[in-house]
Each structure stands twice: as C-alpha cells, then as structure tokens.
C-alpha cells in the first residue's frame, strides 16, 4: 500500500488552484495574471510555483530527484503542510520527541490533530528507544517526527535506527526526519532511505548552515507522489523571487565552499566552547551536540541567563521544556562572539551591590 493512502482521502485527488503560472502556456506578452506590466526591479511578475533551476540544484545537493523535492517558505511550511495533508482534525495523531522543535506541537494543534510527545531523558543523553516510540503509534497515527540532530538537545539519531523505524512504520505512518542541523553532524542524511521506503520524508533548510534564515527557503524530500500532494495543497507561489535568487547565489560553488569552511569553524568552536564550559564551576552538564548549538545545564540558570544578557549576549532559556530544568541552549557564534560568551560566564554568578 502506498503511504499516500494514509493522507486525508479528500485531498488525494485535490485539484490545486489553477494559478497563471500553472496554465502550461507561455508567450512573450503576459496579460494573464493581473500583474503590473512595467518591470522596475524584476519583481512585477509572480514567481514560478516551484522554480526549476533551484529545485534541480537543491535536488543535486541533497542527492534526490527534482520530482522528490518540494520547495517551501522554510521547513516550517513543509511541517505545516504535511500535518494538513495527513491529519484529519479530531481523529488523527502525530508522535514526536520531547523535548524537540516546538512547531510540531503547534502545527498539530492548529490542524486539530492530537500531539503525542515521547519523553526523552537527559540521564541517558536523550536516547531514542524505538520500542517506546512504536508503543505510542496506533491506527490513527499519521506522522512520526524525529528531529536529528534534535533541537534543543543536539542529539543525532543513527541512520540504522531511522531505517528500522521506517520499516516498522511501513504502510502505517510517514516517518518525517527533520534535518535542519544535519550539516553540522557526522551522520549521513536519512534521504538515502527514500529509495527503499515510501514512508520517509526528510526536511532540509537553507536557514542554518547556508546562512539564509531571512530568505525562508526550505525543502521537503519525499516520494514523488507525496511531493505532488504537498504541491497541490500549497499556496500558489511559496517562494518570493528575491529568496530564489538568494538561494541560487548560496548554491554557487564559491558560496558552497565558504559554507563548508564556516561549518568546519562552527564544529571546531563547538568542541572548544564545550571544553571551556566544562571547566566552569557554574556549569553542571553539557550534552554532546551534533548541531550548531550546545545544551548546557547551569547550577543557577537565572544568573547565567541574566549575566549573559547584561553582557549583551542573548541565549535561549529552554528550562521550561520537559527534562531541561536549568538548561540554556547556546547557539555557536563566531570565535569572537564565543570568546565574549566565555568571558561573560567567567564573571562571578552574582553581581555585587555597593552599599
Ligand atoms: C529542528 C528545526 N526544524 C525546522 C526549523 C525551521 O526552519 P526554517 O527556517 O527552514 O523554517 C527549525 C528552526 O529553528 C528547527 O530548529
């Protein structure tokens, strides 16, 4: 059974909005889309719904066919559309890790789907036990979302574990592997599973390693029939023309070489900052990270957060998330920014008040 049979039945044959750029016709003079005819900045025309050149370049970068890749407004949009495509409100559910990226829960709740978090434990390094995860899955489970490396823990999940999960979920649920941070990890992308499993989807983004968070460009990699379904329910023109241009520039050979060099710098900084923090009396635990951030437990998280803020450094307080009491998530910056972070944390925990 194709996994498409698990999508919302009323959407499987859904006819998309017939936008002007989807008509299949082209001509030198466009009087078909109620656009302004004067071209001042190259922005008077609607963009292609799925710009072919960008799709081909990203497909080549990620090792899939262009037909297996859907481009959207960040991976956030792909998460939202997967939830909408598969989950019937009030009936279906989504299983995801906890702690993990917050948009899975938000998206599920917006769609009226039940969100089933699988609690991970800081004590075993946020290990993922497939049997515990599968115990959460029932006939109404449509998506199982595994973020790897996970945000905010930095934990990578091995390709063989993900392959086993995909096998166990075959015909039942779509295994969505969110790889927003995979460029910083040693693990290979789960996109290799697409060739052998029709129930795997992978999320990639240009927001992190490729320095394009402001352009909002992300990709869903999946079997062509799932990509086609997402394309049919998406808004007509997901990607603004300037974002497409910025993405193409980021994929030029020189830009890709610069990105690789920056990834290497951030990975080296990750080890340096972790080692320095491990020596700090204010730090209790640093978990191994395969991402561009560190999850750190402090003896006094308030003092650490406020001390950093007073030094002009904003980090993410994740201490309200399950299992993350007293934890901050610290994104790795430039070496100079990381030096500033370490210097600020070397200050005494409490500020002296003069009488
Ligand atoms: C795990 C994860 N997935 C997806 C996203 C969203 O990425 P995008 O900018 O591509 O929408 C983030 C952003 O922080 C993230 O941490």
Molecular structure report:
The protein has 355 residues and is an alpha/beta fold. The protein has 2 domains: 249 residues, Aspartate Aminotransferase, domain 2, CATH 3.40.640; 92 residues, Aspartate Aminotransferase, domain 1 (Alpha-Beta Complex), CATH 3.90.1150. The chain contains 11 helices and 11 strands. The strands form 2 sheets. The chain has a 7-stranded mixed beta sheet, with helices on both faces. The chain is globular and about 70 Å long. It starts with 8 loop residues before the first helix and ends in a 9-residue tail after the last helix. The C terminus is likely disordered. The site of pyridoxal-5'-phosphate has 12 residues, from helix 3.
CATH classification class of the largest domain: Alpha Beta
The number of E-state strands comes to 11
Main sheet characteristics: 7 strands, mixed
What gap, in angstroms, lies between the N and C termini? 75 Å
How are the secondary structure elements laid out?
Blueprint: H1 9-12, H2 52-62, E1 69-72, H3 74-86, E2 93-98, H4 103-111, E3 114-119, H5 130-135, E4 141-147, H6 159-168, E5 174-178, E6 200-205, E7 218-221, H7 224-233, H8 241-250, H9 253-278, E8 283-286, E9 293-298, H10 301-310, E10 316-317, E11 327-331, H11 335-346
Parallel strand pairs: 2-3, 2-4, 4-5, 5-6
Antiparallel strand pairs: 1-7, 6-7, 8-9, 9-11, 10-11
Helix pairs in contact: 3-4, 9-11
Residues 74-76, 101, 147, 151, 178, 180, 205, 207, 213, 218 line the site of pyridoxal-5'-phosphate.
């Amino acid at each position: 059974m194709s996994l498409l049979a698990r999508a919302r039945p009323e959407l499987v044959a859904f006819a998309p909005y017939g936008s002007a750029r989807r008509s299949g016709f082209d001509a030198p003079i466009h009087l078909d889309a109620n656009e302004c005819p004067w071209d001042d900045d190259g922005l008077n025309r609607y963009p292609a719904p799925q710009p072919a050149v960008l799709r081909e370049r990203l497909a080549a970068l990620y090792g899939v066919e262009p037909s297996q890749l859907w481009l959207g407004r960040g991976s956030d949009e792909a998460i939202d559309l997967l939830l909408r495509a598969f989950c019937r409100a009030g009936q279906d559910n989504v299983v995801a890790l906890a702690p993990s990226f917050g948009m899975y829960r938000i998206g599920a709740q917006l769609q009226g789907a039940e969100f089933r978090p699988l609690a991970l434990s800081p004590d075993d390094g946020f290990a993922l036990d497939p049997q515990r995860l599968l115990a959460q899955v029932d006939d109404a489970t449509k998506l199982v979302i595994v973020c790897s490396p996970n945000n905010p823990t930095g934990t990578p999940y091995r390709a063989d574990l993900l392959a086993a999960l995909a096998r166990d979920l075959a015909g039942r649920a779509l295994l969505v592997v969110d790889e927003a941070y995979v460029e910083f990890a040693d693990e290979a992308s789960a996109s290799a599973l697409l060739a052998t499993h029709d129930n795997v989807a992978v999320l990639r983004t240009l927001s992190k390693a490729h320095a394009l968070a402001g352009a909002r460009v992300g990709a869903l990699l999946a079997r062509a029939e799932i990509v086609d379904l997402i394309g049919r329910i998406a808004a007509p023109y997901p990607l603004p023309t300037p974002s497409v241009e910025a993405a193409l520039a980021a994929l030029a050979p020189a830009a890709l070489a610069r990105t690789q060099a920056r990834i290497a710098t951030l990975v080296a900084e990750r080890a340096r900052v972790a080692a320095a923090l491990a020596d700090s009396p204010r730090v209790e635990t640093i978990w191994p990270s395969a991402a561009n951030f560190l999850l750190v437990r402090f003896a006094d998280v308030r003092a650490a957060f406020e001390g950093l803020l007073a030094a002009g450094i904003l980090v993410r307080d994740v201490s309200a998330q399950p299992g993350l009491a007293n934890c901050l998530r610290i994104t790795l910056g430039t070496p100079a920014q990381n030096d500033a972070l370490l210097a600020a944390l070397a200050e005494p925990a409490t500020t002296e008040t003069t009488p």
